[in-house]
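quick one, two chains, predict together pls
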Amino acid sequence: MVVDEFTDADVDAIFRALADSTRRDIVTRVMNDGISVSRLASRYEMSFAAVQKHVAVLQAAGLVSKHRSGREQIVRGDVTTIHRIQELLSYFEDVWRKRALRMGDVLNDDNRENR
Amino acid sequence: MNVTSHTDVEALTLTTTAELSATLERSWQLVSDPRQLERWWGPPEWPSTFVKYEFEDGGRAHYYMQGPDGERIHGWWKFTSIVEPREVSIEDGFADEHGEPSGDLGVTTARLTFEPIDAGTRLTIHSGFESAEQLEEMKKMGMEEGMREAMGQLQAILDES
């Protein structure tokens, strides 16, 4: 999946993937460190197969990657996708922050006029 | 002035909080009076002018932001809710030169809430986006504005020499 730019299909996949609380939990857990599918499965009250299905949805959305280590399958968060969205929001965070600072300037101007 | 903000990646929202050193009534004029709004909506290099401003529930606004080379980018607002002098919610989008929604890049939302505090007024802004793709496109456009601005400055230097 190309993370520089999202297509409609990419965005749909990301939001469908994150719409489920178990899947959000999985993403949070594997963000810093890789965790095996079997260890993940032991943390949830659901079958190994069900957890594997959740991981597959996250993988299709580009939010996690899966690789084999011996007999284990290790799931790891794909930070680039999350970072890309974070970066975009930060840009608009800056737009509003600057607007708020300009509001302060408008109010300061009347204080000056009253002095 | 103290400005804080945080983003929610999953919900595609951002929240900005500012403490304004003015009374609630005075702070409210920043949104109720288009002449004051013009002083903070657009960046200094892209000042905004509101040519229509129906400040009432369901009312519409039409504005443009003019760049250094004279180019105008038009936008529209719809006031989805106004609770004077506490809260105003708007939808914001791109418009044609007559202020009619162009449909480009979809719609973003903003809710501005004013509350009195000891130091003056706390303003909380909740801003929402439709999709990550919309964010991409809008950011690209913002970047292009920045680029045009840089080109305009370059031109000014060339004209002087």
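Chain A is about 65% helix and 10% strand.
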